[in-house]
Design a protein that fits this description.
Number of helices: 2
Distance between the termini: 28 Å
Radius of gyration: 14 Å
Strand content: 5-15%
Strand order of the largest sheet: 2-1-3
Amino acid sequence: MFAIKITPDKKKPDIWFLLRDTTDYVVYCWNIREEAEEFMKKLDFDNCEITEDIPTGAIRRFNERRDAQKLEREKND
């Protein structure tokens, strides 16, 4: 899995965060690197990069949200 790592200040590279959804704060993740890179281009921010270093808790929350969304779509179909 891939995520977007954002470093808000070039002078402090040790301070960073992973891009999250603003409503439920779940980290955005992609299975395909090219899709993450395409989304990163839309951000138009120089201090970001693609990373595979995603905490297991963040991956778990992403998977839970994805599975809940799948169930909701199936329920509505």
